[in-house]
Design a protein that fits this description.
Layout lengths: L1 H14 L4 H19 L4 E2 L2 E2 L10 H9 L2 H10 L33 H24 L4 E4 H18 L2 H7 L13 H15 L2 H23 L7 E5 L1
Antiparallel strand pairs: 1-2, 3-4
């Protein structure tokens, strides 16, 4: 009991230290989820809310995929639970009194991320379909600001998923000992190098894609509330 109280006391100061990544994530998520339930907007003027694509029932699955993402778990491991801070820091607190608390005990659920990856990949086509619906819903072709935002959202989510560490292991070559032992080794190595370039910025895309998807949701809510902020660039009927 005494050790548990001591651990909690060591965590509390970390919660209030300046950390724009952690607190921006919490604030954006809280604001977005509040809007999602207080003022739901499934579809407006040919635009489909990305949180309802294909249905709001998949939000928990997508949320778990994001929550178990390596980019996010690093933040709450280090800045909420203060452990492990970094291999290069002497105060990482791995000792006889407190062992490694990464993917162990309660945090073992983060290992589901590699399986949730498949759900994340399966959801991507729906976001591109939303863009298609927005430009064809009148029977012809109409390109509006909202359509471009839906496309931007689909692209950002795609880059975030493709830059995923689990994607790297399963599809890009992290699961093989050598490329010469595989089919089309040169092509696979090229794909591995391309994914590695994306992977280096995976944390950035995790935050960017989160801001964009919530921004698009708020944009559609503003349109449904009557704000004249949508613009038509091309219309062929």
């Amino acid at each position: 009991m005494a050790n548990a109280v001591k651990t909690i006391k060591s965590i509390i100061p970390e919660l209030f230290e300046p950390n724009w990544r952690l607190w921006s994530f919490i604030l954006i998520l809280a604001f977005g989820m509040a809007a999602l339930f207080v003022f739901p907007v499934k579809e407006f003027s040919g635009y489909i809310d990305p949180f309802y694509s294909p249905t709001i029932l998949v939000v928990p699955v997508a949320g778990l995929f994001r929550l178990t993402c390596y980019a996010y778990r690093k933040d709450y491991y280090r800045h909420i639970f203060n452990h492990p801070e970094s291999c290069a820091i002497d105060q990482r607190m791995d000792s006889a009194s407190r062992g490694y608390s990464g993917e162990t005990s309660l945090f073992a659920f983060n290992n589901l991320h590699r399986y949730l990856l498949y759900a994340g990949i399966a959801l991507l086509p729906f976001f591109y379909y939303d863009f298609y619906v927005s430009v064809t819903y009148l029977g012809g072709f109409i390109l509006r600001l909202g359509s471009l935002l839906l496309l931007l959202n689909a692209l950002a989510l795609t880059i975030w998923v493709l830059s995923c560490h689990a994607f790297r292991h399963v599809f890009a070559g992290g699961n093989v000992r050598c490329y010469d032992c595989t089919l089309a080794p040169k092509q696979r190595k090229s794909f591995f190098n391309f994914q590695s370039m994306l992977n280096r910025h995976h944390e950035d895309w995790a935050l960017i894609s989160l801001v964009i998807i919530i921004g698009v949701d708020l944009y559609l809510r503003a349109l449904s509330a009557g704000l004249p902020i949508d613009f038509t660039f091309l219309k062929v009927i």
